[in-house]
Input
Amino acid sequence: MDRLLSMELFVAVVDLGSFTAAAEAHRLSQPMVGKHIAALEQRLGGRLLVRTTRRQQLTELGQHYYQRCRTILAELAAAEDAAALLREQPRGVLRVNASVTFGTLRLAPLLAEFMALYPELGVELELSDQLVDLVADGYDAVFRIGHLPDSGLVGRRLKPYRMMIAASPAYLARRGKPETPADLARHDCLGFSRWQRDDGWDALARLHGVEIPSSRFLCNQGQALRQLALAGAGLALQAEALLAADVADGRLVPLLDGYLPEAKPMHLIYPADRQPLPKLRVFVDFIVGRLGEL
Output
């Protein structure tokens, strides 16, 4: 038998004073209520109630079990109320993962606006350039750059992730300005060590059939490459989001715009759910409204 229902019926018998009243309250027959109480007594190995022709009385075992049942049922009701509340209003904590550069420069400023709109929502943002498993790692949503595999997850397309080549005016005055990809052979191309085979300078070289010397400087952090470019150490090939402000202020000069590989697709992905929690629903709507591809 359903143990939880048996506990509810036992508490109802005690609170309402009779099997008949408990049966009416739960729309069951009186014999069925008796079977549930008997099943509990058999499981516990003792009597819970002593019944006479006029009244019923809890045994010592019944008294202890009654108190525990009331506590358990109250906690269950509170858990269900909390779950219902979560489904009514955006509240709780969202766990989100994004790449370091995008998350720092594009996403973080938007999250300040998002949390101001929804004061009962918190965000736990983890930045990493490593690929994470949304479900296994317990994220509500993940921003992913590149083409999506068929994973059964929902993917909302965002504005493409564009790259940019830039160098400082001082470097270009000293070394000259490259006009075509072939000119890169005589320049210092700063390298990003986390690039995959289809990324970065190698992708540019294969796309245009040119040779690009190995980088004299390698780093796993885009901000460090930006700083070297600003200091005149070479050409940086990094996300547009990382270099755009320096270009706008004249600290860096954009190069070879017409020769760059095609921008990568970008998506916000999250688990498929016919009834997603309000916290996820409003987050997806907010992000697509700010970063969605027109």
